[in-house]
Amino acid sequence: MKKRKKLSLNVLFEDNHIIAVEKTAGMLVHGDETGDRTLQDHVKTYIKKKYNKPGDVFLGVIHRLDRPVSGVTIFARTSKALTRMNALIKDREITKEYLALVSKRPLEIKGLLTHYIVKDTKRNFSHIYDKMKNGAKKALLRYEMVGQISGYVLMRINLETGRPHQIRVQMKRIGCHIIGDVKYGYEFGNVDKSICLHCSKMSFIHPIKKDRITIKLKPPKNDFWDIFIGNY
C-alpha cells in the first residue's frame, strides 16, 4: 500500500470563523467522482490536529478553483460564517482577482467581457455564446493586459460572476488561450498538468468582525510564471 504524500499546507489567513490557504494546481478543492483526497480534507486535518478537536470538523466550501488552477482558497469554519460569505458572493461583494498567462495580446488592452455560459456536466465542459441561450448564465469579467515577455501575455482579471470555467472559456472566446489549457484549445499541456491561471487576491468584509480582509498570493514558481515574477 502506498503511503499518502504529506501536504505542506500554506495558511494565508486564519481565525475562528474563516481560513484561507494556498491551493496548488492539481489539487481538488472538494470531493468528486475520483475519490481523490481534497484540499478540504487537508484543511480539516490541519484544524483537527492544531486545535485537538474530537470528531468531524465543520469546514464549508466558500468558492471553488478548477483542479489545474492555483491560488487563494477560503473555507468557512462555522455555519454562520458560511451563510454570510455565501451572501457576500451572491451580492458580488467579494473581489476576486486572477493572473493569467495567455497566448496572445487581446485586441483591446483592457475591457469588460459579457458572454453566456452553458455547463455540460457530463463532459465537465463549458460552452460559451455571445447571445443568451436557453439554460445559459450571464458571465461578466474585467481584464487588463499587464505586460508581454517572450511571446506570453500577462493578464489581470477580475471576476464579476462565478460561472464554471468562466475565465478559461472567456479568454478562449477572445482568442487569448490560457497557457497549458488544452481543454479549451491551447496547443500544449504543461508538464505538471497545471494551467497558467492563478487566484492572486481576494478582498471582502469579514463576515463576523466586519473589517476588510485582503489576502494576496504570488503565482507558483515554474518556467512560465518565472518569466514575469520580478518584472510586474
Kindly describe this structure.
By secondary structure, the chain is of the alpha+beta class. The protein has one domain: Pseudouridine synthase. The protein contains 4 helices and 11 strands, in the order E-E-H-E-E-H-E-E-E-E-E-H-E-E-H. Strands 1, 2, 3, 4, 5, 6, 7, 8, 9, 10 and 11 form an 11-stranded mixed sheet that branches.
According to CATH, what is the class? Alpha Beta
Question: Tally of extended strands?
Answer: 11
Number of helical elements: 4
Query: Please, what is the average pLDDT?
Result: 93
Distance between the termini: 45 Å
User: How many domains make up the 3D coordinates?
Assistant: 1
Q: CATH topology, anyone?
A: Pseudouridine synthase
**Proportion of strand residues:** 25-35%
Helix-strand category: alpha+beta
Percent range of helical residues: 10-25%
Summarize the structure.
About 15% of the residues lie in helices and about 35% in strands. The protein has helices at about 40-50, 80-90, 165-175, 225-230, and strands at about 10-15, 20-25, 60, 70-75, 95-100, 110-120, 125-130, 135-150, 150-160, 195-205, 210-215. The longest helix has 12 residues, at about 40-50.
Secondary structure topology:
Elements: E1 11-14, E2 18-23, H1 39-50, E3 60-61, E4 70-76, H2 79-90, E5 95-102, E6 110-120, E7 125-129, E8 137-149, E9 152-159, H3 166-173, E10 197-205, E11 212-216, H4 225-228
Parallel strand pairs: 4-10
Antiparallel strand pairs: 1-2, 2-4, 3-4, 5-9, 5-10, 6-7, 6-8, 8-9, 10-11
